[in-house]
Amino acid sequence: MALLHLLHRWAGKHSVAVRAVTVDHGLREAAAEEAKGVAAFCNGLGIAHSALRWTGWDGKGNLQDQARRARYRLMTDWAQEHGIDTIALGHTADDQAETFLMRLARGSGVDGLSGMQMQRQADGIIWVRPALQLYREQLRDYLLRHDIKWIDDPTNEDERFERVKARKILKALAPLGIDVERLAGTAQDLQLARQALEFQCQAAAREIVTVDCGDVFLERRKLLFLPTEIRTRLLSYALCWVSRTEYRPRKTALADVETAIGSGKNSTLQGCMITPNKTEIRITREHQAVKNIVCPSDVIWDKRWKFTGPHAEGLEIRALGEAGLADCPDWRDTGLPRSSLLATPAVWRNRTLIAAPLAGLANGWSTNALFGVDHFISCVISH
Questions:
Q1: How far apart are CA 299 and CA 347, in angstroms?
Q2: Rg (CA), the chain
Q3: CA 324 to CA 210: how far, in whole Å?
Q4: CA nearest 118: which of 16, 49, 187, 20?
Q5: What is the maximal distance between C-alpha atoms in the chain?
Q6: Are residues 11 and 111 in the same domain?
Q7: N-to-C CA span, the chain
Q8: Are residues 281 and 295 located together in one domain of the fold?
Q9: pLDDT tens by residue, 124-173
Q10: Distance between CA atoms of residues 170 and 177, nearest Å
Q11: Residue 258 belongs to what domain range?
């Protein structure tokens, strides 16, 4: 509520349009009425307001994590629908300190402990946190001074949730000097360390990484001579980039991959296949991870492949697989290994293979990966 009011005042001085959105997770009966209260407040300020409802909770898994993912997904779709390129979030220094404690408990490294960023870019949206260096108490004082009512979410007192536990532990640690200000400041310092590591990792990527047909290649000798932190970062980025996933693999799993690389053995992780030889390490999509991905021929497949050709109703993009490869007599002439080709996209009509451009069966079709080496190198730096 404080951020909404502050942005309204700021936008009026800078001729910027503001819209507001409330996500109702459908987990509390009172949430719908609370959203209506926000809508009424926005109406009084002349701000357009939308209420979105999440209905995807199946009672399984980590509730807060799934709710957070759903919230961002709903807000992203809403912003794109309304032509909005920037979304402001109300996280505070208190949230930053709690996040630090939670990630410390999980054994996070520099990236995790650096906490939330003031600004990042994802899914075509710029996400900003204007209040990240302010404290909750400051925002409450602001609301009181301006006679603005707010509602405290009762789940903020529910000790089943990790963040609530962290909040209460912070109060207990305060006498030792481990308070919100100290932890938020430490997170900020670690962000500077993270930026330095990413800079070095990007420099290494420019020297040893190439991309071909959607696969990432790393020059083996130079990779193995990199400092451990830079080497593991580069491997993590490559796995995330090929699989188009957001989160880096766990340290233990990544350590197993590094051991396999050192022994010259193949391994799989994050939906990718890692194949080392004497000169390079090839990271490609694993067929098992994409075998069930199906979409119309004119839709981007696996978040990175786009087809050009005689699109028609009933044509689908699916992984080539064993059955498709058997119908591509010239696949060896492509120079791509069999294991890579199995996970490449192909055009199908029911069980009939129509085209597999990457496997030498074009039939009037072509396909291109949406991203190349320049995109990979740019992604090494956090957005």
A1: 12
A2: 24
A3: 27
A4: 187
A5: 76
A6: yes
A7: 27
A8: no
A9: 899 999 999 999 999 999 999 999 999 888 877 777 788 889 989 998 99
A10: 10
A11: 213-285
Instruction: Supply angle C-alpha 279, 283, 284, rounded to 5.
Output: 130
Contact (CB, 8 A) for 130 and 139: no
Q: How many CA atoms lie within 13 A of 333 on its CB side?
A: 6
Q: What is the pLDDT of residues 69-105, one digit of tens each?
A: 899 999 999 999 999 999 999 999 999 999 999 999 9
**Residue 345 contacts residue 318 (beta carbons within 8 Å):** yes
Tokens of 119: 């600004």
Q: Is 307 found in the same domain as 279?
A: no
The Cα–Cα gap between 295 and 309 comes to: 15
Which of residues 265, 285, 305 is at a domain's end?
285
Q: Residues 62, 147: one domain?
A: yes
* Separation CA 241–CA 377 (nearest Å): 10
The structure tokens 């990790």 sit at 162
Token pair of 74 as six digits: 């709903």
What six digits make up the tokens of 348? 């199908």
What six digits make up the tokens of 6? 């502050």
> Amino acid identity of 233?
R
Which two structure tokens, joined as six digits, stand for 31?
A: 């949430």
Question: Which residue's structure tokens are 């293979």?
Answer: 353
- pLDDT (0 to 100) of residue 28: 84
Strand partners, 126: 86, 121
The tokens 């580069």 sit on which residue? 234
Do 266 and 349 share a structural domain? Answer: no
Token duo for residue 369:
């990966």
- pLDDT at residue 216, rounded to an integer: 96
Question: What is the SS3 string spanning 41-67?
Answer: HHHHHCCEEEEEECCCCCCCCCHHHHH
